[in-house]
Amino acid sequence: MPELPEVEITTRRLGRTLAGVEVESTLAPGMVTMKTVDPPLAAIEGRSIDGVRRIGKMPVVELADLSLLVHLMSAGRLQAYDKRASLRDRRSRLLIRLADGRELRLREFGTKQRAWAKLLRSDEVESDEMVATLGPEAWPAPPLEELASAIDQARHLHPMLRDQRVIAGIGRSWVDEILWEARLSPYKKGSELDSDEVERLHAALPVLGHALEHYEEVIGDTVPDKLPMPLRVHRRQGEPCPRCGTTLEAVHFAEHVMTYCPQEQTDGRVLKDRRLSRLLK
Ligand SMILES: [Zn+2]
Predict the structure, then answer these.
(1) In angstroms, what is the span from residue 260 Cα to ligand 1's centroid?
(2) Neighbours of ion ligand 1 (CB under 5 A)
């Protein structure tokens, strides 16, 4: 599940290895992956890649006045390969074949086709609805006042911080880490936070930068499918809290798990886990 630190290290590595390389040809085996038709994907053929950057959780491949905006969703990966993919690889969504023999590939794990891409004129990227509606970037952290006004909503912190329109870059893994760092309940509402709590939340955002520093140290030229995420609480339910030793608890949802320390985040209360109560029936 690539979030801000994972996408940032991906774009840094891709930018380093792909800058100046020419695109030879393109293929879109994912029939529904391209969300734009004008210009066609083939318009990047013959162009050189200027760089790869990140907006929120979205990588952007820049090719002069055209930009390929990619949304990895929960299971997409954007990677450069030394050899071209077999056309039978059912994970392939976009294949960008490079003149030096390599290939930039958008792949997706699982059976669902959710990852997508848009080829935009570079001066239209900022006004694209997926970009224009983003909240401030979570890293580097926005000024305290900007964060305070962004989260001043009567919504629970856990889903709200994952809403890219509120703050950009946080997903299901890092939200647990941030709320744990800030000692805040995932079910507390943004509008209920006092100034000390907003400050704690603000002070917790650099955990994303620390993850990125970790990736810079341990990841070489190629970003692996599964990143060595330096998570301390997410999905570690049943283990002791690294700070206070209380057993970490979790609430299971259909597609994600929310892990927290009851002692420090929910006043000692263990939140109802619907999956668990269903199993016990
Ligand atoms: Zn704890």
Answers:
(1) 8
(2) 241, 243-244, 246, 261, 263-264
Q: From the CA of 261, how far away is ligand 1's center (Å)?
A: 5
Which of 83, 96, 92, 86 lies closest to 24 in space, CA to CA?
96
So what's the pLDDT on residue 164?
A: 98
| Coil, strand or helix at 259 | strand
Res 281: pLDDT: 44
Angle subtended by helix axes 195-204 and 174-182, to nearest 10: 130
Distance 240 CA to ligand 1 centre (A): 8
Ligand 1 center from residue 181 Cα (angstroms): 9
- At 167, list the tokens: 């703050």
Torsion of CA 192, 195, 196, 199, to 10 degrees: 100
Q: State pLDDT tens for residues 96-135.
A: 999 999 999 999 998 889 999 999 999 999 999 999 999 9
**Residue 84: its pLDDT value, please?**
85
State the Cα–Cα distance between residues 212 and 101, nearest whole angstrom. 30
Q: How many CB atoms lie within 10 A of CB 35?
A: 13
Mean pLDDT confidence for 242-252: 97
The distance between the two most distant Cα atoms of the chain, rounded to a whole number of Å, is 62
Structure tokens, 53: 């950057």
Is the pLDDT at 277 greater than 70? The verdict is no
CA distance 214 to 225: 16
Q: Distance, CA 165 to ligand 1 centroid (Å)?
A: 30
